[in-house]
Amino acid sequence: QVQLVESGGGLVQAGGSLRLSCAASGHTFSSRAMGWFRQAPGKEREFVSAITWNGVSTYYTDSVKGRFTISRDNAKNTVYLQMNSLKPEDTAVYYCAATPGPAGGPFLQQQRLYNYWGQGTQVTVSS
């Protein structure tokens, strides 16, 4: 069993930055790919970014490329999402998720690959 707890959300002005953290329980964090997804009001949850178990490969949706950076610290069982140059359209609840085991490639954009999810953290970007 893996529990994921997100933190770091909040209210920020457009152009500002936030760093989200996702702390995982358990001893198998380092063997799992991790992803960040978001859900804006009235919209479906969508892929934001993902990172392989060893941090070698990262993936981003086009709208955040060049602005967001995903990273992980396996010693701390934590994955991060550094968000810079935030825009009002980035406003959403952000969720982290973990795969059952090692996974990689563009398939990490698919929500069905993840079997553990956090409760989410609200990010609000004002214009």
Q: In words, what does this structure look like?
A:
The model has no long low-confidence stretch (mean pLDDT 95). With 127 residues, the chain is an all-beta fold. Strands 2, 4, 5, 6, 9, 10 and 11 form a seven-stranded mixed beta sheet that branches. It has a four-stranded antiparallel beta sheet with strand order 1-3-8-7, with no helix packed on it. The chain contains no helices and eleven strands. 0% of the residues lie in helices and 45% in strands. A hairpin with a 6-residue loop joins β5 (46-51) and β6.
Which short descriptors sum up this protein?
127 residues, mainly beta, 7-stranded mixed β-sheet, 4-stranded antiparallel β-sheet, 11 strands, globular
